[in-house]
Amino acid sequence: MKDFTIREIVEYAEKIEAESHKFYALAAEMIKEPDTKKLAFDLAEEETKHFNHLRDLLNRERLTSLELDIVVAKGIDLLNRTVKTAEITGDSDPIDILEVALEREINTEELYKMYLTFTNLPDNVVKVFEDLRNQEIGHQNRIKTLIKKITGK
């Protein structure tokens, strides 16, 4: 079994956050329903903040959402993504997209939960992973609330 460096762990997490940013930016382009479109746009922006939070750990320059799109996310293939979920297409309705988004948030939260089981992580890294995990849970709750609003269930 390979031992991962803290840098490798954080860089992997950066990739996931960049993937999430691209997913939500794409979803925001595809969605017509206003509340769902706004949530996708807001979550894309929040994923940029998560990405930059991780960059801070590595003393790297922060990026804007546009820079993240150009520098990092353009090279991401959502068909070959790190966090596996169902796919969204132009035919996906808002509920389909929200359900995939929820799946993505749950899987990402599980990743951060797993990271917190690693030993010998510095306290500042543990705090970032705890914060990110809690934010992923917050995203899940926002998505669930919108699904209930749309479906009435």
Describe this protein's structure:
- The chain is mainly α.
- It has 5 helices and no strands.
- It is globular and about 45 Å long.
- The model has no long low-confidence stretch (mean pLDDT 86).
Question: What is the mean predicted local confidence, pLDDT?
Answer: 86
Intertermini distance: 45 Å
Q: Tally of extended strands?
A: 0
Q: SSE order in H/E notation?
A: HHHHH
Helix content: over 70%
Strand content: under 5%
Spans of 5+ residues with little confidence (pLDDT < 50)? none
Please state the CA-atom Rg, rounded to the nearest Å: 15 Å
Overall 3D shape:
globular
SS-derived structural category: mainly alpha
Largest sheet, in brief, is:
none
Helical stretch tally: 5
